[in-house]
Every structure is written in structure tokens, then in C-alpha cells.
Write a structure and sequence with these properties.
It is built from 5 helices and 6 strands. With about 180 residues, it is α+β, with helices and mostly antiparallel strands. The strands form 2 sheets. It has a 4-stranded mixed sheet. A two-stranded antiparallel ribbon has the order 3-4. The longest helix has 20 residues. The chain starts with 5 loop residues before the first helix and ends with a helix.
Length: about 180
């Protein structure tokens, strides 16, 4: 498993943000934020599906690099199965309906998409251990481990954040807010 630095991950994020900005849906428009669902579908060629992933809402997202059946739950809490095809990101259905959870939904989408990015970039190094070869889960209230004990999860979190919060968009927005505040005050 490759251990990438924050600098390496920021460079990878820049390439995917650049590809996102070149999309016909985005190009020539004023962008204030990255839409992770659009990035996953149009840049990465992934499918995004919403299902109940656990009884208690503890699993927020999942993806797999191979074909694999996973347990999901119907609206009445009965068990069902969903077939992951290696190109699908599953997200907890409740995150799609509660506007207060939009940030959590966006981060979950980008976290799972980041696993797929690393697998595309490093097919011989990523997701090859027994632990990481199955389904990647993103759990609610995950503990921070110091020192880092799970590099794949740390790298997916770091890449997801770097794509969702690209430096140029943040600086542009901060300059705009600062300019407005000084102009009005």
C-alpha cells in the first residue's frame, strides 16, 4: 500500500478538480463549490446510489473495487441485498433527505470516491490487502487514530477534503467576503 504525503494528495486533488472544472456542466460558470455527486459521475464514471446501509445509521457510505453483494435495509428495516459492481458508491439514504446533513453527505460521497481514485491511480498497490480488498465502509463518528493505523482511510479522508475544499475556491471566496465586508463597512 502506497503511503502518500499531504503534498502528494493535494497534487492528485488538483488534477481531479481541474477535470471537474473542464466539464461542460461547469465550464464557463462561476463555481463556488465542488458538487461531489457530479464529480463522481462525470469525472470518475461512477454510479451513486442511496440505500439504508445500517439499522442505526452508523454506516454512511460504502464502495467496492470488485463485484460484491452487500446487505442493505428496506424502508421497513427488512434486510435486502445490493449488488456493488466495482463502479458504484452507496450512500446512506437519510443523508440525501436532510438538508442539515448536506456536508456529511458530500464528505461521504467524496471519501468513497477517493477510494476509487486511489484504486484507479495505483491498481497494484491499493486495495490489495485482505482487509482492504472487500467493501470500504465510511462510518459515522469514526475515531481519529494517532499515529495513523489505517493509511487507506486517512488518505481517502485527506483526498476527499482536498477535492471538496480546493485552495483556489477558498481563497476566491475569502477575498470576496473580505471585499464585501470592507466595502460595506
Amino acid at each position: 500500500m502506497k503511503h502518500l504525503s499531504r503534498y502528494d494528495i493535494k497534487a492528485i486533488a488538483g488534477k481531479y478538480v481541474q477535470a471537474y472544472m473542464a466539464l461542460p456542466d461547469v465550464r464557463n460558470t462561476q463555481i463556488y463549490r465542488i458538487d461531489p455527486e457530479l464529480l463522481l459521475e462525470k469525472v470518475l464514471g461512477l454510479n451513486v446510489e442511496y440505500q439504508h446501509l445500517s439499522y442505526d445509521g452508523s454506516i454512511l457510505g460504502m464502495t467496492s473495487f470488485t463485484e460484491l453483494g452487500v446487505q442493505v435495509f428496506e424502508d421497513n428495516d427488512s434486510e435486502a441485498f445490493f449488488f456493488l459492481d466495482g463502479k458504484t458508491v452507496l450512500v446512506e439514504k437519510e443523508l440525501n433527505y436532510d438538508s442539515k446533513l448536506k456536508g456529511r453527505k458530500n464528505f461521504t460521497l467524496m471519501h468513497e470516491g477517493s477510494h476509487q481514485i486511489f484504486k484507479m491511480l495505483f491498481p497494484n498497490d491499493y486495495g490489495i490487502t485482505h482487509k482492504s480488498a472487500g467493501v470500504h465502509y465510511y462510518k459515522a463518528n469514526s475515531k481519529r487514530n494517532k499515529p495513523i493505523s489505517d493509511w487507506e482511510e486517512w488518505q481517502a479522508n485527506t483526498l476527499g477534503a482536498a477535492i471538496l475544499l480546493p485552495e483556489n475556491l477558498i481563497k476566491r471566496e475569502l477575498c470576496y467576503v473580505f471585499y464585501r465586508r470592507n466595502k460595506m463597512g
